[in-house]
User: Which sequence fits this backbone?
């Protein structure tokens, strides 16, 4: 895309861009939005309840987190299954499948 094309987009009204982008989305993707809900917390709202065996949190870094973000500081890793090597990841997958996780 050229600089002139980008500048032309920038000058278009937002409502036109939103309408065009929504039409493009509807033409290329299903109307249903599917979300993955982590299994570390229980969610139950009207029309949705997460269940065990549907989403498993796996940490490839184990309990280690180099980011230390303010909202978590690595706390979310504590609820995840650690799998720090390819062999450990495979063993975890085999174990979870044997327990009925899909």
Assistant:
């Amino acid at each position: 895309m050229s600089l002139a094309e980008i500048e032309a987009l920038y000058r278009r009204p937002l409502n036109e861009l939103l309408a065009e982008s929504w039409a493009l989305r509807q033409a290329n993707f299903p109307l249903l939005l599917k979300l993955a809900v982590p299994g570390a917390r229980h969610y139950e709202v009207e029309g949705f309840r997460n269940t065990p065996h549907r989403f498993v949190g796996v940490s490839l870094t184990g309990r280690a987190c180099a980011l230390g973000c303010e909202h978590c500081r690595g706390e979310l890793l504590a609820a995840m299954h650690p799998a720090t090597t390819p062999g450990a990841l495979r063993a975890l997958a085999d174990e979870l499948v044997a327990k009925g996780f899909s």
